[in-house]
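Good morning,

Attaching, inline, the backbone tokens for the sequence recovery test we're adding to the shared suite. The designed sequence is right after.
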């Protein structure tokens, strides 16, 4: 559980640390605003992805299912700066499918945590593999990282792409190519 009082105290210390006057009118309510914001931005820490993937439907079509261009916003654990972009998720059903919104909700659970993109990609693939028991899973994430845009190397527009393949996708390069064509269409 998040501790609003600790978040507020930490924000006050941070503001003092960078030389701000925490009693300045514009900053008086900032610690409580940040605490409330943390519930939304880091709410995935308190969510279980299985909740979204429990509702499944029998399907006679066991061909690839792709949900692409799922917009997400996350936070890099190294600098606590945002990274954001699109997630593309595919799986090959094993007689059952999840509702399409459930794939986007699963992405959201993992995006709303402080982490690195590489782990987020693997966590989404793990959840789909564990709870859907599909014949194969493929996840690709394309994201821009503010730690590369507004600090450090300062290269706006540079994208990081991560991918995870499991099961039939790992065994069949043709399936990977089909996924990539569908994502780029």
């Amino acid at each position: 559980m998040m501790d609003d009082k600790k978040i507020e105290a930490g924000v006050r210390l941070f503001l003092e640390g960078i030389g701000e006057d925490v009693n300045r009118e514009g900053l008086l309510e900032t610690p409580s605003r940040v605490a409330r914001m943390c519930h939304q931005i880091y709410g995935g820490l308190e969510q279980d992805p299985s909740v979204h993937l429990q509702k499944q439907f029998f399907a006679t079509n066991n061909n690839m299912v792709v949900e692409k261009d799922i917009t997400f916003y996350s936070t890099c654990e190294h600098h606590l700066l945002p990274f954001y972009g699109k997630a593309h998720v595919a799986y090959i059903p094993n007689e059952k499918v999840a509702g399409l919104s459930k794939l986007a909700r699963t992405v959201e659970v993992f995006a709303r945590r402080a982490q690195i993109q590489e782990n987020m990609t693997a966590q989404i693939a793990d959840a789909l593999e564990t709870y859907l028991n599909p014949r194969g899973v493929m996840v690709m994430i394309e994201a821009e990282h503010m730690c590369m845009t507004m600090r450090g190397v300062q290269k706006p527009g540079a994208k990081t792409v991560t991918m995870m393949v499991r099961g039939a996708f790992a065994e069949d390069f043709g399936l990977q190519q089909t996924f990539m064509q569908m994502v780029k269409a």
